[in-house]
Amino acid sequence: MAGAAAVASVAALAAGWLDLGVSPRLLRWWPSALRLRAAWDAARAAAVAPALAAASWACLAMSVMLLADAVFLAAASLLRGRRYRPGPPLGDGSGGGAEEEGDVEAGGRLGYPMVLVQIPMYNEREVYKLSIGAACALSWPSDRVIVQVLDDSTDPTVQDLVELECKFWANKGKNVKYEVRNNRKGYKAGALKQGMLHDYVQQCEFVAVFDADFQPEPDFLMRTIPYLAHNPQIALVQARWEFVNPNECLMTRIQKMTLDYHFKVEQQGGSSTFAFFGFNGTAGVWRISAIKEAGGWEDRTTVEDMDLAVRAGLKGWKFIYVGDVKVKSELPSNLKAYRRQQHRWTCGAANLFRKTGAEIVVTKEVSFWRKLYLLYSFFFVRKVVAHVVPFMLYCVVIPLSVLIPEVTVPVWGVVYVPTTITLLHGIRNPSYLHFIPFWILFENVMSFHRTKATFIGLFELGSVNEWVVTEKLGDSSSMKPMPQILEKPPCRCWDR
Q: What is the spatial distance between Cα 222 and Cα 226, in angstroms, rounded to a whole number?
């Protein structure tokens, strides 16, 4: 949020030029220069300066909102413990999936609820084996889990490869279902919704969702399902993302900093206070009855995961974030893929705010404080203000204030507030603190794209429902030479 120094210096040079008097030589060559300068001074005093001053104070007020929200979430994530416990182990507690047939009546497999594992994918040639193999390796009785591969691929070769992989695991005794559609209506939401309509899903109590590049550990279900099985008010258990390529380039390191803050602070803070946060779309387990009560998957925005979470939250369901359960995934390693991903996430969240704001206000199934948290903190501050302020204040208002002497931005708004917010983001990942200057510059550049996406979502402009699947490299990413970027050793005390 503090990367406007270069822009401000250029603006200062321009301001010095504008403050120069109109020289006699300039008047001889340009007789109307004096009148133009007088007209500019009048317009500046009458319209430009008041408008810029109003924009300045509006941005400063929103900066304070960001700071207050960051302090609140940081305190909540540090001071509040987990309000729900997983309860006793499922089955006979021996580790899952190793019981003999004769142990069924003794409480073995009878203790394991039926689980559906959904893996939506679209032309995922590079990673389809990783997700399918990891799902089939989950430590859960094979007759109590169904792996459902939802393939929307348009490439026949990729479809054949995915189908062969499913048959490979089916021949090994795994209950794998390969499902395809004749269209991509609704994209990921449409595939998940169609997948829930199959008859065999009716026997399942919970559903785990993994994107094609996610690789859950074998004990994933063992560590997440108990929260749902022993706490009937919980609808969602969200695990944390871990990354297979955080050191591939500087951009992936910056992404790791941002996403680590999201999970360690935003998700943990929401879970600890109001038992609500946005579903991340993958690496989570849902109670199927909660999905049905909320109305199922909807494709009205590009953030179908957040949409479902909001509707389930308005029905009174609780969510829990389990940060010690981590699922490996891949970070976008090129700018084009990252920009498209950020456009989809930012635009979709703003559009969802537009479509659910009135519904949140009028609902009577949740408390006033939870509605306030949803409207103000979750949506307005984090999905709108957080994207607009970095661009409008540090890339527009501050540079222009150098050109307009009638407008001054206070030091606390230029230095103290952004510095505090930056430290609150960086302190939760101490081994990456030396990357903060690069993070500031990169986030300032991305603020323009996120601001544009925010307004596209709020006003439902042309590309509001644009959906581009994030490019993945899979194992090919490990074939690239890794840049030698020095990294500080982790501090164990701070990391805890």
A: 7
pLDDT, tens digit, for every residue of 31-52?
777 778 788 888 888 899 999 9
Selecting among 213, 260, 299, 305, the annotated active-site residue is 305
485 pLDDT band, cuts 50/70/90, is: very low
- Cα–Cα distances in Å, from 329 out to 12, 124, 341, 494? 45, 14, 15, 24
Are 374 and 360 spatial neighbours (Cβ–Cβ below 8 Å)?
yes
Q: What is the mean pLDDT of residues 424-430?
A: 88
| DSSP letters spanning 51-65 | HHHHHHHHHHHHHHH
Q: Pairing state of beta strands 115-121 and 206-209?
A: parallel
- Whether the predicted pLDDT of 465 surpasses 60: yes
Residues forming a β-bridge with 81: none
The sheet that has 318-329: what strands, in order across it?
Answer: 176-180, 145-151, 115-121, 206-209, 284-287, 234-243, 318-329
Residue 288 near residue 177 (C-beta atoms within 8 A)? no
Tokens of residue 103, six digits: 């142990």
Is 305 catalytic? The answer is: yes
Cβ neighbours around 388 below 10 Å, total: 19
Residue 303's contacts (CB-CB under 8 Å, 6 or more residues apart) are: 278, 281, 344, 345, 348, 349, 351, 352
Query: What does the block give as tokens for 383?
Result: 């999905």
For 243, the enclosing helix (H) or strand (E) is strand 234-243
pTM for the predicted model, two decimal places: 0.87
Count the Cβ atoms, other than its own, within 10 Å of residue 10.
Answer: 11
152 catalytically annotated: yes
Angstrom distance (rounded) from CA 163 to CA 179: 9
Q: How many whole angstroms separate alpha carbon 338 and alpha carbon 255?
A: 9
Tokens of 379: 């949506």
* pLDDT at position 210: 98
Helix 250-261 × helix 417-426 angle, to 10°: 90
Tokens in use for 50? 């008041």
Q: How far apart are CA 416 and CA 410, in angstroms?
A: 10
210 touches 138 (CB < 8 A)? no
Q: 291-319: string of b/e by CB count within 10 Å (b at 16+)?
A: beebeebbbebbbbbbbbbbbbbbeebbb
Q: How many residues appear in the chain?
A: 496
Judged against a pLDDT cut of 80, whether residue 9 lies above it is answered with no
Structure tokens at 77: 């994530």
Q: What is the pLDDT of residues 287-321, one digit of tens each?
A: 999 999 999 999 999 999 999 999 999 999 999 99
Q: Looking at 69, 151, 152, 299, which residue is catalytic?
A: 152
Neighbour tally for 289: CB within 10 Å: 13
* Cβ 435 vs Cβ 365: under 8 Å: no
DSSP string of 335-357, one letter each residue: HHHHHHHHHHHHHHHHHHHHHHH
**Strand, coil or helix: 477:** helix
